[in-house]
Amino acid sequence: MAARNRLPPWHESIRLPNGRDVLIRPIRPEDAGPLKASFALLEPDEIRNRFLHSVQELSDDDVQRLTHPDPRTEFALVVAEPYPAGEALVGAVGRVFLLPGTRDAEFSILVSKYIRAMGLGRHLILRLVRWARGQKVERLYGDVFDQNTPMLTLCESLGFTRQQDHDTPGLFRIMLDLREQHPDDDTEDTPA
User: Fold this and answer.
1) Structure pTM?
2) What CATH number is given to the structural domain containing 133?
């Protein structure tokens, strides 16, 4: 049996095209320190693309909220070094949360420049889609700035549609109808 099969659920060890090994796994409380440290390495555009506005630093409340997702309504994965939680630098985060009283969920992804363009955005989206389907979500959406062409292109390749946000110039809402057949994580096992 391959070592990959012995990992806990939602854990996946992969080798990136640059030869670096990373672990994709659910976020843990112990990731608070590394998450805060990783945030300090992000460029302003990376932060703006994820949070849709400028953020100087993650507050302790933000870090607490991010590292303690409510398993009934949200799910978050990190791409980290293959070290124990609390010791591993976090290079990417994917998060999805259910919107109360609906069959909709919102997702967001942030991939650091250090591991960008290695297929991790696709990999994370596919895992978030899988979780959302398991929660009987009908529509998965996210908000993306028009200059974030890689994210828009990636989402469209996975079947997301985009709609201009009329209240915020330069912002698109991308939506995936999970009631329709779309690519899922069974078709993509490794980063592209």
Assistant:
1) 0.79
2) 3.40.630.30
